[in-house]
Amino acid sequence: MPPGPPPVPAGLPSAPPDPWRAAAVALLNLSGLGLGYALLRRRLLMAGCLVATGVLLLVALPADADGVPGAALAGYAVLLLLAAGHGAVAGLRTRLTWPGRPALALLLGVLLLAVPAGGALWYQDAHDEAVEQALLDRLDKADRLVAESGERPFTAAESDYRSALGVYRDLTEHHAGSRAARKVPDSLRTYYTTVGAAYGHQDWCTAVEPLKFLRTVPDTVSKERLGSLARWPDDRLATSLYECGEQGLTAGAADWVTRFGDLLDTFPGSGPAAKVAPAVDSAVQKAEKAVRGDEPCAAVAQLRSLDTRIGDLSKSSGDQGGSLAKAAGRAGRSGDAGEYACGVSQYKDGDFDAARKTMEQFVSDNKNDKNQGRAKKIAIAAEVAQTLPAAGKKLPTTASGGSISVTVKNDSPDDITVMYTGPVTGSFTLKGCGGCKAYSLADTLLTGFKPCHGGKDYPQRTISLPVGTTYFVHKPNGNSTATPASDTAKLRTGYIYTECAYTTRTLGSGY
């Protein structure tokens, strides 16, 4: 037998099948309010629809940027479809409590579809606004992070600057149509001025690293979005590199070469780069002038440093290399010449060891200098003064000769250098005595001990000296461990003087 009609639901009297009535019930249930079940007096099923809709509203409201979970929407849609399908089956053979005509119920169902549709549109608007507010909150947090970072040193704030920059990039790339994205250009302008604030305060050296950082921003945010900001750090960095380098050059700091080198490499055609060679030349002139001042040794050291550092800079300075190389050569020559003034200053200050070394170096470096002759004498006098400090009270002159003969003999097996200073200054060497030997300390303590006596042919030399006090030092040559000996001779007219050098455990002298 063919299957019979489906059983008539309980609650209302059955009626002939009516597809319009079934469609009306289905549409009324699609509203999510279970109204189709209400017209069929299926109160429990109606309540189920209302509960499902209420749960969805609890999940969805208030609207936020995350929206409704997809599982909740899918589950609710399935429930509506089941309610619509079941309502259509139930309404096919069941009379409605109201209205009497299915067409009117169908029209009511169509009109009530505006409820979920309107709710969906309203919710979408609310969700969009929530998203906008969330994006604006992200922008505001990034802006506040930049403002707070501006109160800290750049090295401590760099990571926060990068974090804020990441937010700006995300807003412009992934939310380009949002209100927050439209505000990013203003935020970026504030970002640049905050990161580069040290430049505005003319804190040139502090400004260098932040401005270098800003030149890397186009690696994160495209140049098209940055516009003129992409070039904003360039002139400022060039100026900061020059000013910082110039400050270091003036103060004698070590990093000015790095600053000028960065400037010449990065902005070779800029105005600040064109000022590098004149600034370096001015520093050389200043140091040259200082050689004639109160601290010539410091000026010489500065010239030496300038010679080396300018030479390093000139190797990678492009068009300015020639000018810088000339400045380096000038600094080197002036440093060599300035050694004389430095040595004189050291001698006057009683630093005889340093004065001797400086003058010896000057003589070696300046073969044709007009002061070479006197420098040699100052070096001799400084060495004498190391043993006899009284010899260094006066700066030696270039005078030579005198009316008093002084003969110096060597009663020592060692070659010796005889140095003397006083009214005149000089030195000479004597060969060691072939038949002589070192005296014991006991010999020197004997009554009548007289070196250079015994008829030997002692190596000797006679010099002429003026009246006055002359200081002698006899120094063994070679690898001898004998100690230099000294003597102070007050020379007077009418006498012939003899100096004798001999060796004990130390080297002694007498006349």
Q: What does this entry look like structurally?
A:
Residues 1-5 have low confidence and may be disordered. The protein has helices at residues 19-30, 35-39, 43-60, 70-92, 102-112, 114-149, 154-174, 179-195, 197-200, 204-214, 223-226, 232-251, 256-266, 271-274, 276-290, 296-314, 321-348, 352-365, 372-387, 441-445; strands at 404-411, 416-421, 426-430, 460-465, 468-476, 485-491, 497-503, 507-510. The protein is built from 20 helices and eight strands. The protein has 511 residues and is α+β, with helices and mostly antiparallel strands. A hairpin with a 3-residue loop joins β7 and β8. It has a four-stranded mixed β-sheet with strand order 4-1-7-8, with no helix packed on it. The protein has a four-stranded antiparallel β-sheet with strand order 3-2-5-6, with helices on one face.
In short:
The protein has 511 residues and is of the alpha+beta class. The chain is built from 20 helices and eight strands. The strands form two sheets. A four-stranded mixed beta sheet has the order 4-1-7-8, with no helix packed on it. The protein has a four-stranded antiparallel beta sheet with strand order 3-2-5-6, covered by helices on one side.
